Amino acid sequence: MRKSFASRVGRIIRQSDIVIEVVDARFPEETRNRALESKVVDSGKKLIIAINKADLVSKERAKRAKRGISKPAVCVFLSAKDRKGVKRLMREIGIAGKGKSVVGVIGYPNTGKSSVINALKGRKVVRTSRKAGFTRGEQLVRLNQEVMLVDSPGVIPFNERDEFKLFLVGAKNVQDLGDRELAALKLIEFVQKNNSGELKKKYGILGKGEKVLEEIAVKRKKLLKGGVPDTNAAAGIVLEDWARGRLKD
Ligand SMILES: Nc1nc2c(ncn2[C@@H]2O[C@H](COP(=O)(O)OP(=O)(O)OP(=O)(O)O)[C@@H](O)[C@H]2O)c(=O)[nH]1
Ligand SMILES: [Mg+2]
What we know:
Elements: H1 2-15, E1 18-24, H2 34-42, E2 46-52, H3 59-67, E3 74-77, H4 86-96, E4 101-107, H5 113-121, E5 139-142, E6 147-151, H6 163-168, H7 180-194, H8 198-203, H9 211-219, H10 231-243
Helix pairs in contact: 7-10, 9-10
Bound molecules: guanosine-5'-triphosphate and magnesium ion.
């Protein structure tokens, strides 16, 4: 399945004059697909990296994200949600596209590719979802007389197999994780490292390591027969909270 998505996106790149790669402002480096970027640049096409969901990060963090991205890509901050940065993006498309042009929109699953297309168009023309992997085929949207936008299914680099990382950046859904408890423990460690007070605030817990899931299970009354803490259910709570943006790192 993933392979056919990848080849479809490869075809979209070949057919496009300009490519917008949509990355997540919270994880700009992790959601870049360098192999696809090279394909675009090597074929002499303009690459615009849209750092989307800028509404979810501080200005400092956004600036740092931009520093990491070097030429020849053009970098635009965007919040498809608040429709910020849309004019600048329009300008970049206009600058590159003299005459008629096809603009392919690519990127990791769930970075907001379809939302960016809606923001450019100024109304909802393609469907979006909280779930990763929502757009499954390519969709054409006429932006104006000159520009045709192409929405694409999200793809991850073929050698990226770290399911926790994919989950962290929103590219993998909770129900598709192989080991939920392991992912939850890694997530807890990640949040504790970056925002030490968050777990206490959210779940009222202070512990570390595997005990944390037991504590959460007890606090949330997720108990199995005999009062054994249901750590799998606790893992589900933590993972869902992260996926819904209810946990801050
Ligand atoms: N806060 C915030 N959320 C956004 C923004 N853009 C998109 N989202 C949300 O991110 C989720 C994914 O958006 P989509 O536009 O469906 O993402 P996509 O890249 O098309 O996803 P796939 O088709 O699954 O690859 C949705 O819940 C959107 O509402 C943004 O700028 N800010
Ligand atoms: Mg989509």
